[in-house]
Amino acid sequence: MTTGTQAQTVTVRVPGKINLGLSVGPLREDGYHELSTIYHAVSLYDTVTVQPADDWSVHVTGPWGEHVPTDDSNLALVAARTLAKRRARRAKVDPVRIDIDKHIPVAGGMAGGSADAAATLVGCREVWGLDHLENDLLEMLGASLGSDIPFLLHGGTAMGSGRGEQVTSVLARGELHWVLWAGEGLSLSTPQVYAECDRLRAEGGVTPGAPEPSGALMTALRRMDTDEVAAALHNDLQEAAISLEPVLAEALSAGLDLGARAGIVSGSGPTVAFLVGSQTEAIDLSVGLAANGPTGDIERAVGPAPGAQIVHQRSNPEPPRSRPDTDRPGPLGPVIG
Ligand SMILES: C[C@](O)(CO)[C@H](O)COP(=O)(O)OP(=O)(O)OC[C@H]1O[C@@H](n2ccc(N)nc2=O)[C@H](O)[C@@H]1O
Ligand SMILES: Nc1ncnc2c1ncn2[C@@H]1O[C@H](COP(=O)(O)OP(=O)(O)OP(=O)(O)O)[C@@H](O)[C@H]1O
């Protein structure tokens, strides 16, 4: 960490996530569903650069850049402004320019917007010299912006409960190899997929109980046996995602026919994650899917990956503006409230 007394340009790398298990409980009064999930961060990263600027702005490049809004609705900008507003109780903070190199599929169920928000919180903490702002406070702030954000700060493989914002590490040794298929032109809205899940349950006369973590999945992860993990993958939102985008069923069976150990819709979809046994199997499956699967972008990834972390920082050439002592970063106090 730096002292925070000099303006800096900070670059943060943040992974996308898949859900190895996603058990969805009943709809709560606040409009969220109670969840029990096993999050797994994978090595498909967005890179977010934050630097002080005269005005707030966000700029997006990369393979998925054109699908991302650059107005005030961008989740990275929302995160930066929210942290600034909380911070403004104590002192003024400068606006920032945010640059996102976008590789995580947009509206794909891999929490790309949440990832950028998490990366921005980490970047702004450094740029604004908020060294005393502990990770758990950052996670609390992230949770107020989106249920997946605390996990993108945390990374690795972890259990999510509540509406997904309460995160605890899970014991998982070794690596899992994945092939990710993002169908061309496909996107799904998260609230719509949850609503479709409720509709299908009501139609089938199913009343969900309290969501529970899967013992079989936890055991498989502890042993890190690929076939055991493959057998234990489960997503309660998969049927709803397929109901809204039937091509997902085609993609899933194409991957299985081509040798994947298992396939699962990632979160609310529509990205499909295929589990394979090695890098070689991943290459074979990618080539097979590109030739014989439904049209889409195909990426290989490994998990677990670390959460949002600084990968580069540079002091800006100009000396920092002098500020009165009262303007210096002080203890933030209760950030959430
Ligand atoms: C599908 C998952 O990615 C699985 O990890 C998450 O549950 C979605 O998390 P997220 O995109 O961060 O979602 P949020 O931004 O918190 O919520 C967006 C909307 O999704 C629905 N939502 C989200 C989380 C949850 N536990 N229950 C819900 O019903 C609600 O309609 C909510 O208004
Ligand atoms: N930085 C951002 N990156 C991606 N999308 C963003 C961003 N900021 C705002 N959005 C908007 O948020 C919507 C959802 O995008 P996102 O990629 O986070 O979906 P998702 O991966 O399905 O989310 P989740 O898995 O958390 O449910 C997009 O349609 C887009 O308009």
Features:
337 residues, alpha+beta, Ribosomal Protein S5, domain 2, Alpha-Beta Plaits, 2 domains, 8-stranded mixed β-sheet, 4-stranded antiparallel β-sheet, 10 helices, disordered N terminus, binds 4-diphosphocytidyl-2-C-methyl-D-erythritol, binds adenosine-5'-triphosphate, isoprene biosynthesis, 4-(cytidine 5'-diphospho)-2-C-methyl-D-erythritol kinase activity, ATP-binding, nucleotide-binding
Share of helix, binned: 25-40%
Structural class: alpha+beta
The level-1 CATH class of the largest domain: Alpha Beta
Give the radius of gyration: 20 Å
Total domain modules: 2
Regions with pLDDT < 50 over 5+ consecutive residues?
1-5, 324-337
**Could you give the count of β-strands?**
12
Instruction: State mean pLDDT (0 to 100 scale).
Output: 91
| CATH architecture grouping of the largest domain | 2-Layer Sandwich
Tell me the fraction of residues in β-strands, as a range: 25-35%
Biggest sheet, open or closed, and with what strands and sense?
Answer: 8 strands, mixed
Enumerate how many helices there are, as a single number: 10
Measure the end-to-end span: 26 Å
List bound small molecules.
4-diphosphocytidyl-2-C-methyl-D-erythritol, adenosine-5'-triphosphate
H-E order: EEEHEHHHEEEHHHEHHEEHEE
Shape: globular
CATH-defined topology of the largest domain = Ribosomal Protein S5, domain 2
GO biological process, one term: terpenoid biosynthetic process
Pathway: Isoprenoid biosynthesis; isopentenyl diphosphate biosynthesis via DXP pathway; isopentenyl diphosphate from 1-deoxy-D-xylulose 5-phosphate: step 3/6
Function: Catalyzes the phosphorylation of the position 2 hydroxy group of 4-diphosphocytidyl-2C-methyl-D-erythritol.
EC number: 2.7.1.148
